[in-house]
Amino acid sequence: MSSDPLLQPYQLKHLTLRNRMMSTAHEPAYTDDGLPKDRYRLYHAEKAKGGMALTMIGGSAVIDHDSPQAFGNIQLHKDECVRWLSELADDVHSHGAAVMIQMTHMGARGKWSTGEWLPLIAPSAIPEPAHRAFPKAMEDWDFARVLRAYADAAEKVQAAGLDGIELECATHLVAQFLSPGTNRRDDDYGGALENRLRFLRQIIGAIRDRIGAKMILGVRMVCDEDWQKGLVADDGVAMARALKADGQIDFLSVIRGRAATDEALARVIPTMGARSAPHLEFAGELRSEVKFPTFHAARIQDVPTARYAIEAGKLDMVAMTRAHIADPHITRKIMAGHEARIRPCVGMGYCIDSIYGGQAACVHNAATGRESVLPHEVPPAEIRKKVVIVGAGPGGLEAARVAAERGHEVVVFEAAPKAGGQILLTAALKRRREILGIVDWRVAECDRLGVQFRFNTWAEAGDVLAENPDCIVIATGGMPNLDLLSGGQDLATTSWDILSGAVAPARQVLVIDNTGSHAAMTVAEYLADRAESLELVTPDRILAPDIGATSYPAYLRALSKAEAKVTMNLRIDRLERRGNRIAAIFTDEYAGIEREKEADQVVIDYGTTALDDLYFALKEGSVNRGEVDVAALLKTRPQTLTVQDGSYRLFRIGDAVASRNIHAAIL
């Protein structure tokens, strides 16, 4: 038996959990027609395979039609869900883990114009700021219907063989009843805390009446909204004590904060630059007060913090939810003594933000969510080959790591003195330095696997061919793109110039964002406390449209503090000299006129243009002439395409193909 606190078993009612590691409910948007089919199953089975004790699925599985999907939620009101939940439970159980589901009615947190276009419901007719939909205040028949829907959903979960149910009481309908800020009723469900708690108690009662006393039932509850109009910590303690005294629930998963605005959500789910485990001590204090099984998750992304949470008695089960998206095998690596090999969560929030764009993805684990085609553990190759990679940015490093894991001999050429590529520029902003974990982990893995690095080497075709490679991967990235300017390119400063330190910030700076993502916002935040005057200009109708809800608040806080000006709907055309100043000439497409702004410095971000000279120099000598068999690629079959005689296969990846992002380069 290990003495590690994280590896000790935990008895929850009749269920023995094999250790203290879990993943809390989150919705990766992997459902198919609202059902947790194979992709959903494989994602959770991988975490069970990786050694955790409990995986919580659902991330708010919805119980009725007037709680429409927001981001691919499981639809528990569908009878077909039982089959898929059962298959998922069997798979997770086969790997020794338990599985529970979080279910909810989302209340006002949604859109009436999706699904069946039913009106949303809430305790009071108060819209949630983040979604802006006006709900209907619940009537008597709504209560009966919702209680029945909760019980029906619980019965399906029980029939599917899951180990338990968690009720979402943190941001959705139940939480809207609990909070005095969103519950303005004057009947038995409003006013005093006892009344605001009534609906939750009725839900718990309806579920117990339907499924009996044996099945595990818990709540994930907001115990302090950190909002002047809302619940305070004393309310959280009082509610937890009341539910414990009722004797019908078995655990409490603690939430602190409010998700009704993007800024507040970014504090509930802290991202890069926020302090580690900001709500852990709060959860521990509540556990101490109530003396009840307590779970918690909020930026617990490293093993020592998780270990402290258990050893110090702060929690009974500790959730490293986003960390397990980055590496589902954390627990297995701890057990094997390979803690240093855990792929780190860098807190970028790409997993959460990408949900709203379609489906969750870890910024630097391409296998997450793609378990049916990409293995988390790279298998060995049948034949050892010589692989030469040019470029040690994230894509090149991943190519080197995977090739070396397969057993190939790998040589990496890099023009810079160290690995990292554009990630090194991003890390110039102190708040985002955690992103270096993407590089550091890969460099450490490559060192372990014997990859040879040739730094400070601008590789030419002859250098590459002298290695007698079987395969060449061009990962040379790109260079700043100024093609959007019709003139005055020599007057422009790029975001690379500023973040690398090659050019000092001027007194008055214009930042032109033509990508709508992190790059321009990173340089803007960097300049916020360095320039005396800062203006950010974008051709879009909103600022940074490609940055997700949990990530952009940190940028806006910095810009607001600096009193930076933001101007929308202007598209840059050219730069012109005005004495010792620079004029930026914009097109106002709506007014049909040109507009001009002067500054000491104009910083432009327009992505990159591919640095592909070496690729084209090597193309004619390759057996595939650089061509990719896309059908084989998508099915992860070998690239065997041969179009001519040659001594090597040639591929290019990442920004050497086109300007994209870290995840694209690694994938």
Per-chain topology:
Blueprint: E1 10-12, E2 15-17, E3 21-23, H1 38-49, E4 54-62, H2 81-94, E5 98-104, E6 121-122, E7 136-137, H3 140-160, E8 164-169, H4 173-178, H5 193-196, H6 198-211, E9 216-224, H7 233-246, E10 251-256, H8 262-268, H9 280-290, E11 294-296, H10 303-311, E12 317-319, H11 321-326, H12 330-335, H13 350-355, E13 386-390, H14 394-405, E14 409-413, H15 422-426, H16 436-449, E15 452-454, H17 461-465, E16 471-474, E17 478-480, E18 493-494, H18 495-500, E19 508-513, H19 518-528, E20 533-537, H20 552-561, E21 565-567, E22 571-578, E23 581-588, E24 593-599, E25 601-605, E26 608-610, H21 613-619, H22 630-634, E27 649-652, H23 662-666
Parallel strand pairs: 3-4, 3-12, 4-5, 5-8, 6-7, 8-9, 9-10, 10-11, 11-12, 13-14, 13-16, 14-15, 16-27, 18-25, 19-20, 19-25, 20-21
Antiparallel strand pairs: 1-2, 17-26, 22-23, 23-24
